[in-house]
Amino acid sequence: MTLDEARYEYLLQLGDSDLILGQRLAALCGHGPALEEDIAMSNVALDLIGQARFWLSYAAEIKGADADEDTLAFLRDAPAYRNVLLVEQPNGDYGHTIVRQCFYDVWHFFVLQALMQSTDTRIADIAAKSIKEVQYHVERSGDWVVRLGDGTEESHRRTQAAVDKLWRYTGELFRSSEAEQALVEAGIAVDVATLYEPWRAHMQALFEEATLELPGDQPMQCGGKHGEHTEHLGYVLAEMQHLQRSYPGARW
Amino acid sequence: MTVSEQTRFDINDVWQWLDAVPDPEIPVVSVIDLGIVRDVRFEDEQLVVTITPTYSGCPAMQVIEDNILEALRENGVDDARLDVQLSPAWTTDWMSERGKENLRGYGIAPPGESAGTQVIDISRITRSGRNVLPQTCPHCGSKHTERVSEFGSTPCKALHRCLDCAEPFDYFKPF
């Protein structure tokens, strides 16, 4: 794998994870539990999709030929997607939506913070831009985890169930793909394994306040970074790509 | 228009034309007030305007880009290009004092100072470590206000409420 091939793969990992989570959240627009929260969630979706555009545009430039952010988003099938499995998991009840978001936001924050030091200045610039938005995401999802976890008996039960169900997808966040490893050596990517301790410490503090329990060690599901996805991604893409697949090249 | 005619444009005039381009969501501030336009220069015969996005996913950015090019065309600049620059990332600290005053008059509390480029301490944004400062109500001037939501009607605003005059108001987030 050349450095540019690795860079392309890595940019897809970052961009696809933002894009798929943004698409998941966008599907909830108009369904939020309160008007303010509906607006907040849609704003987070917009941020993530905007950030995905930066990553995918850069990826497309490396790929060359006729690639651009749109062909990458709308004309790749699931096995060509490099997002982590966590973000493609269904919205479920609001406990699931929020716990998925919180796991991702805190990880996202630490990744971007490290990438601000990337030797690839374009990556560093995108990270510095994005982290300003992500700090608001961290604040919001953390607030909700506490509110739901330390809420009613029912909200606590459901949120803990979401934690238990989604925990198995967190291991992948801290395991490098082959492309990432190559880039870590060049100072371009962050070694995600080093982010586990700070991420876990943040979760520990938050969960204590939320009266939730972090699950113990268990087998983790991985594969998203290599294109091995859960069945859910296909449904997300079917909806997201429908228009460009049915009417190729359509613009408005 | 010939090339020699176009190069006669005064850069200061270009800045003034751009100052007449309003933000599509908040028409009382111009793209200059917002600090979106970072540079204006000629590259040979082509006028190059460098802009920086506010929020990554802000839908207004595309409209702003179109409106800037339209304003230049209206003033006779046919050969213009927009460069988008991400670094240094846009901050509300670049907003003009006039822009902040206009926001207040429009019913939006202007942003306080942002954290700038300093590295953010994540413990500050956990629930217990945070301190939300009450903003001044743009309607009645009271400081007796509270935050309703960190996210408002556009990505750049938060929703607050005045506990004296009971009016809700937008707060332009420091960013």
Keywords for this structure?
heterodimer, A: 252 residues, mainly alpha, 0% strand, B: 175 residues, alpha/beta, GMP Synthetase, Chain A, domain 3, four-stranded mixed β-sheet, three-stranded mixed β-sheet, 5 helices, Phenylacetic acid degradation protein (chain A)
| Biggest β-sheet strands, sense, barrel of chain A | none
What percent strand of chain A?
under 5%
CATH topology term of the largest domain in chain B: GMP Synthetase, Chain A, domain 3
Give the N-terminus to C-terminus distance of chain A in angstroms: 38 Å
Q: Major sheet of chain B, described briefly?
A: 4 strands, mixed
Can you tell me the residue ranges of chain B where pLDDT is under 50 for at least 5 consecutive residues?
A: none
Question: What helical percentage do the residues of chain B reach?
Answer: 10-25%
Helix-strand category of chain A: mainly alpha
How many β-strands of chain A, per DSSP? Answer: 0
| Radius of gyration of chain A, CA atoms, in whole angstroms | 18 Å
Largest interface: A-B, 44 and 30 residues
Low-confidence stretches of chain A: none
The fourth-level CATH homologous superfamily of the largest domain in chain B is: Fe-S cluster assembly (FSCA)
Helix percentage of chain A: 55-70%
Overall 3D geometry of chain B? elongated
